[in-house]
Write a structure and sequence with these properties.
Number of strands: 7
Distance between the termini: 57 Å
Strand order of the largest sheet: 5-7-6
Shape: elongated
Structural class: mainly alpha
Strand content: under 5%
């Protein structure tokens, strides 16, 4: 049971005793303030009895009720509401009265807590006065002009700490109830203040549009106004949407996340000297990771924007289609892949809102497809070293900051194996992704996914889709285990049984993460052809017949949405080439497909991308057709995505053409 659920249960047990049953909906949410005093309890007291301690539960209840009141008050000020609304305001006044009543049970009238409460109230009022004064000042003028002239970091820090001043009452309450060390209490108080500054910066990012249209002090408006001034940009006639675009295209949005991360890193340094701060430190680490992932998402957006902008005029290479064009096409494609390698040895492509741009998975995939074609051994070595230095824990993920997953790890292990690098130390960890049905799961930890995706619901069914066995993930694992020489192992035999049991009625293998069964089917067939052609010949040939039945008249292949794809066309060609090594019957088909592919090649040597990757919602179990899904940048779930740098597709085309 997670901490929020435990605290919620301890509070719900108190409500009937206190005669406050009508307030149950105020503690039913999953916000941090429900647990806020818990953050400071252990480092201040050294005690671990969070959920059996009645006083602490009362303090948590008082805190969450007062927090609800402050939220309502803040909304009224933000929207310039001054009149009392009996239908909505009375309930929230009840929360503040109930909060003070609970605090009165904990602290006698003579307790020093009430003097500190008065101090917090004064700090809060000072913060609200700053906010209110600026709102009045900005009412009839451009908020960006006011921010540049009047806002300073010192003023912003004072405002952020003031508006969150009552949060320090949690530290005050614990310090007085348990007579904690004064020095530690002071350090924790400083940590609280800094945490609130970081939190306010991120809150201002989220409220950027709203705070332009209803002007008030906002960290990001201040930073962007300085950017406008420093770069001589006339912003006075910009629309709100144009300001939002500038926030991210200018890099200011990224910098705001960086500033918040810097504050959190300072907090983590301070916490190193405080014993029993594991829970608090974990929350800070979680927030730091969340903000770093948001930075990755911004970089992914900018990366895709720039790739789209610079792709103008990239025409097909039709003028080179002659008898010598195949070799020329391969060379151009390899040169393109070489040119896209970053200085640190990585390649990057695809963009997901929840995880940013991929570099680890993409790099490992490129190596599995092209390393024998790359002209410079130094390129391969740099890519291998990048993978070694960018694990997500003990294995590999979409990128270093995202969770490790079976597919990224399989690609990395295969890349290492193909380059004679040992993978023995990682094999046992990778095999934990194999499910009891023999298939491989993409993710193994429900709890890690809930935290990484910041899901409000925490029941296991909310991530059941992403933590179940996936045929596409299993197909690549099947391919790797064979190539690693592990086809006699128990893991391979279980996986082989899973593969055999899960061919669909069309004689193909569906894909969870891909917009065509071609992906899963291609890896299964490439493995079967080499593993035991005689035994599985009927399966292989019926599945190849099913693949050939899917082709378009021009020998191309499309995704579930009917859009032609060089990626899927290349995968089918690879299967036919592998089969032809055993039974040479598909020479004409290979010739027709390769001719079609070469007709698609662009002037920079790359092959056009298509919407091959799909991201079902985490609770979607099993195969789902993406026919009606949209190509999206901002939607996390049930959307399709393209490799906008064309690295993934081009690498796959090289792999298909390499043996011709």
């Amino acid at each position: 049971m997670d901490i929020l659920t435990k605290r919620k249960k301890s509070i719900l047990r108190l409500l009937p005793e206190l005669g406050m049953d009508e307030l149950v909906h105020f503690v039913s949410g999953g916000d941090l303030y429900l647990n806020y005093p818990d953050l400071f309890y252990e480092p201040l007291t050294g005690r671990k009895d969070h959920f059996s301690n009645r006083k602490l539960a009362l303090l948590c209840l008082a805190g969450v009720l007062y927090y609800r009141f402050l939220l309502k008050l803040d909304r009224k000020i933000d929207t310039n509401q001054s009149a009392f609304n009996p239908e909505t305001d009375l309930e929230f006044i009840t929360t503040v009265e109930s909060s003070v009543r609970i605090l009165s049970l904990l602290f006698k009238p003579a307790s020093p807590f009430w003097a500190r409460w008065g101090t917090r109230r004064g700090e809060f009022i000072e913060g609200m006065q700053i906010d209110f004064a600026f709102k009045q000042y900005m009412k009839d003028t451009n908020p960006f002009h006011v921010h540049r002239k009047e806002v300073t970091m010192e003023l912003y820090t004072k405002l952020a700490r003031g508006k969150c001043a009552f949060g320090k009452s949690a530290v005050d309450g614990i310090s007085i109830l348990y007579q904690t060390n004064h020095q530690v209490s002071g350090t924790i108080m400083q940590i609280h203040d800094n945490f609130m500054v970081a939190w306010s910066i991120i809150d201002d990012l989220e409220d950027f549009r709203k705070d332009i249209e209803n002007p008030q002090i906002n960290y990001c408006i201040w930073k962007l106004s300085n950017y406008y001034h420093d770069n001589l940009i006339d912003y006075q006639f910009f629309t709100t949407t144009e300001h939002v675009k500038y926030l991210f295209l200018s890099g200011v949005g990224y910098t705001c996340y960086e500033d918040a991360v810097h504050v959190l890193e300072g907090i983590l340094t301070s916490l190193k000297d405080i014993p029993n701060a594991h829970f608090l430190s974990g929350i800070i680490q979680l927030k730091k990771r969340e903000y770093k992932l948001k930075q990755l998402a911004i970089l992914g957006y900018l990366d895709k924007f720039n790739a789209t902008f610079t792709n103008h005029g990239n025409k097909k290479l039709q003028q080179y289609l002659n008898k010598q064009s195949l070799q020329y096409g391969k060379e151009r494609a390899v040169n393109y892949i070489s040119s896209r390698q970053n200085e640190n040895g990585s390649w990057h492509d695809y963009e997901l809102p929840f995880a940013g741009t991929s570099n680890v998975w993409i790099t490992s995939y490129v190596l599995t497809q092209t390393n024998t074609a790359l002209k410079s051994a130094g390129q391969v070595e740099r890519a291998i070293n990048f993978l070694k230095d960018n694990k997500s824990g003990s294995l590999w993920g979409y990128n270093k900051l995202w969770l490790s997953d079976a597919d990224s790890t399989t690609c990395s292990l295969l890349a290492f194996h193909l380059n004679n690098e040992s993978v023995e130390n990682e094999l046992s960890g990778w095999l934990t992704f194999q499910a009891t049905d023999g298939g491989f799961k993409t993710y193994d930890s429900h709890e890690s996914l809930v935290a990484a995706l910041n899901l409000r619901q925490r029941t296991r069914d909310i991530t059941a889709g992403w933590t179940g066995s996936h045929l596409c993930v299993s197909a690549l694992a099947y391919y790797f285990l064979y190539h690693k020489g592990l086809s006699n192992t128990k893991a391979f035999k279980k996986l082989n049984d899973y593969i055999l049991k899960n061919r669909n009625d069309r004689q193909l293998w569906d894909a969870y993460w891909w917009t065509s069964p071609v992906y899963s089917t291609s890896y299964v067939l490439q493995t079967m052809i080499r593993y035991n052609f005689k035994k599985y010949r009927d399966i292989i040939e019926s599945s190849i017949a099913a693949l050939l039945a899917m082709r378009n008249r021009d020998f191309s292949y499309a995704d579930e949405r009917g859009e032609v794809s060089c990626f899927y066309t290349a995968l089918v060609m690879k299967v036919l080439i592998e089969y032809n090594k055993v039974v040479p019957v598909y020479g004409n088909e290979i010739k027709q497909i390769s001719s079609w592919l070469l007709h698609q090649q662009l002037s920079d040597g790359s092959f056009p991308s298509s919407y091959c990757l799909k991201t079902p919602a985490p609770n979607v179990i099993g195969y789902v057709n993406s026919k009606d899904w949209k190509a999206a940048n901002k939607t996390n779930a049930n959307a399709v995505r393209d490799d906008f740098h064309r690295v993934f597709t081009t690498a796959s085309c090289i792999n298909a053409m390499i043996d011709l």
